[in-house]
Amino acid sequence: MNGLLADASTRLEKALKYTSISEDASERLKHPKSSLSVSIPVRMDDGSLRIFQGYRVRYDDTRGPGKGGVRYHPNVSMDEVQSLAFWMTFKCALLNLPFGGAKGGITLNPKELSKQELERLSRGYIEAIADFIGPDIDILAPDVYTNQMIMGWMMDQYSIIQRKISPGVVTGKPLTMGGSQGRDTATGTGAYYVIQTILPKFELIPEKTTVAVQGFGKAGSVVAELLAKSGYKVVAVSDSKGGIYTENGLDILSIRNYKKEHRGITAIYCEDTVCDIGEHENITNEQLLELDVDVLIPAALENQITAENSNNIKAKFIFEVANGPITSAADSILDKKGIYVFPDILINAGGVTVSYFEWVQNRSGLYWTRTEVNERMKDKMMTEAEQVWAIAQKDGVSMRTAAYIHALNRLGDALDAKGTRDYYVNGSPH
Ligand SMILES: NC(=O)C1=CN([C@@H]2O[C@H](COP(=O)(O)OP(=O)(O)OC[C@H]3O[C@@H](n4cnc5c(N)ncnc54)[C@H](OP(=O)(O)O)[C@@H]3O)[C@@H](O)[C@H]2O)C=CC1
Ligand SMILES: O=C(O)CCC(=O)C(=O)O
User: What DSSP string runs through 219-279?
Assistant: First the structure.
């Protein structure tokens, strides 16, 4: 095995040494359960037919139906989707959600498609994977470059195929289609709750703490805004086109509003003189990662901090809001430099936690307020963060290894409780 999944699996190997889970269970966790690859024909607005490549992977469903987002991005590949499904498996176990791990994706740049083309593509994706998903089988959600609108189309298409309204097959839907209050901001808010639990342990005072955030989407923009509101000095943010920096701290709310209107943040200082963001300079994404800040928050894509640039990282704390932003080789270098890394499967788990709440609300038909949702999510995130912290202290391991140990113990128990299912291996069920 090589590639992203192989790299992700090295974390599993490391943590396995600290658990007593059976060999059978650990072997099962090293392989994705099922991986589907589909071709999606889409009629484009100019009349031509284009075939897109899509994927859905259910990595493990021992603890419940598969759960995980769908990504639309040019770099989507089977290896990436399998890795993302692997992380979902450990994330759901870590948060003690009754779900396994899954993920999906389509290889494309969605910014190049019209709204109508995107809708045909999203509905076509569901046509192609309909037999593979379901409210009790595998439940979808948003990820990079997908949103509420796309989740709504997907839920509607699945309902058409099933000939019954099936809100529980997708989370992150519009509120009018059974979405949950708070799902739109859940990932950034959950990360904020954990950061607020961790940083006081190091006696960091918000007003004296500088923060840089890479990625200014559904997750990054929310955590940046919440930290800024609490007094942290968010000195740099970026999107796919580059970043902006000021040592005095940015006005995150204005930047969010600006991005909504202009779809980018880097034009602020070069083209728009009306916008009152204050003085700041242009930086690249590479420069942002290497800024001399207290806290670095990668909130875009995987493989951003690697063996090549990790020696240049100056932040003291890294909170992984993105999935897989640090390679395993970089982990060791950062560790030697004394940089504390707080792992993706804990930090960004607010999203799937509120997705679980959405699924519960869809099944019960009783809907909660935003405050109820956020309070329940906060409680879950803080409880598990404290447990991971305690394991890290007890076993003298990194927070990443501690998070995997915690998740592995739950996964191992569930796998062992199901038994060996030897009849598969021996051929005939009796
Ligand atoms: N949404 C969710 O609920 C969850 C998301 N995550 C993870 O968080 C990360 C971000 O997801 P999300 O916020 O939903 O995605 P979005 O699509 O909402 O936002 C992605 C952001 O990343 C920026 N970006 C894209 N490519 C690059 C790049 N090469 N360098 C720097 N910035 C880049 C985009 O820029 P631009 O705006 O210019 O395109 C955009 O600001 C992903 O790793 C995702 O898997 C994890 C858990 C849940
Ligand atoms: O909300 C969900 O179900 C999954 C979100 C997701 O894809 C992730 O946590 O990476």
Answer: THHHHHHHHHHTT-EEEEEEETTEEEE-TT---HHHHHHHHHHHS-STTHHHH-SS----S
Hey, whose CA ends up nearest to atom 20 of ligand 1? 217
**Residues 237 and 209 sit within 8 Å (Cβ to Cβ):** no
Reported ipTM: 0.99
End position of a domain, from candidates 177, 208, 226: 177
- How many whole angstroms separate alpha carbon 400 and alpha carbon 187? 18
For 53, other C-beta atoms within 10 Å of its C-beta total 15
Supply the pTM of this predicted model. 0.96
173 and 187 inside one domain: no
Ligand 2 nearest atom to the CA of residue 351, by list position = 1
Q: Which residues are catalytic?
A: 103
Give me the pLDDT at residue 258, please: 83
Find the 396 Cα to ligand 1 centroid distance in Å: 32
Helix (H, G, I), strand (E, B) or coil at 35: strand
The pLDDT tens digits for 119-152 are: 999 999 999 999 999 999 999 999 999 999 999 9
Domain limits for position 378: 180-430
